[in-house]
């Protein structure tokens, strides 16, 4: 399957009961750069990244030269994993877009806030 992957494509596999995805960036030669709690930002094979699970490819059309430069920047000073500020999506989006962001984190935080607001509103109605 690695023949159909371009440098800079996102590789995505499910984790945590399939509610959260693990995201990495293909860097060529069967290798993926990703970020995990155990190893922080690091490079591994596609098989290690997949961890026995099916994965999907998301095309990014990223410039391979830019991807390689950002990967070298990370390799020279890899950061530790931090779920709120440096998770796998932060690393992947930095490599592809130059900006650290985590859409999954934003989704779950917004969902938690909405749930909390609904809970609080329900509690107020019950007390009244």
What spatial form do the alpha-carbon principal axes imply? elongated
Widest sheet, order of strands: 4-3-2-1-5
Structural class: alpha+beta
Mean pLDDT: 89
The number of E-state strands comes to 5
Q: Catalogue the unreliable spans.
A: none
Helix content: 40-55%
Beta-strand percent range: 15-25%
| Distance between the amino and carboxyl termini | 60 Å
SSE order, as H and E? EEEEHEHHH
Oligomer: single chain
The CATH architecture can be named as Alpha-Beta Complex
Radius of gyration (Å): 17 Å
- The CATH H-level homologous superfamily: endopeptidase domain like (from Nostoc punctiforme)
The CATH class, by name, is: Alpha Beta
The largest sheet is: 5 strands, antiparallel
Instruction: Domain count, please report it.
Output: 1
The helix tally amounts to: 4
Q: Write the CATH fold name.
A: endopeptidase fold (from Nostoc punctiforme)
Textual characterization of the structure:
41% of the residues lie in helices and 23% in strands. Strand 1 and strand 2 (20-28) form a beta hairpin. The protein has one domain: endopeptidase domain like (from Nostoc punctiforme) (endopeptidase fold (from Nostoc punctiforme), Alpha-Beta Complex), CATH 3.90.1720. It is elongated, with a radius of gyration of 17 Å. It is an alpha+beta fold and 128 residues long. The chain has helices at 46-50, 64-76, 88-97, 103-127, and strands at 10-15, 20-28, 31-36, 40-45, 56-58. Strands 4-3-2-1-5 form a 5-stranded antiparallel beta sheet.
């Amino acid at each position: 399957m690695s023949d159909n992957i371009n440098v800079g494509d996102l590789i995505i596999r499910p984790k945590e009961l399939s509610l959260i995805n693990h995201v990495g960036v293909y860097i060529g030669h069967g290798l993926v750069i990703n970020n995990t709690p155990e190893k922080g930002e690091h490079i591994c094979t596609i098989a290690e990244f997949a961890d026995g699970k099916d994965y999907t490819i998301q095309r990014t059309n990223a410039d391979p030269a830019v991807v390689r430069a950002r990967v070298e920047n990370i390799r020279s000073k890899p950061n530790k994993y931090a779920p709120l500020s440096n998770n796998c999506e932060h690393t992947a989006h930095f490599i592809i877009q130059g900006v650290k962001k985590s859409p999954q984190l934003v989704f779950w935080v917004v969902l938690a806030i909405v749930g909390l607001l609904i809970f609080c509103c329900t509690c107020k109605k019950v007390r009244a």
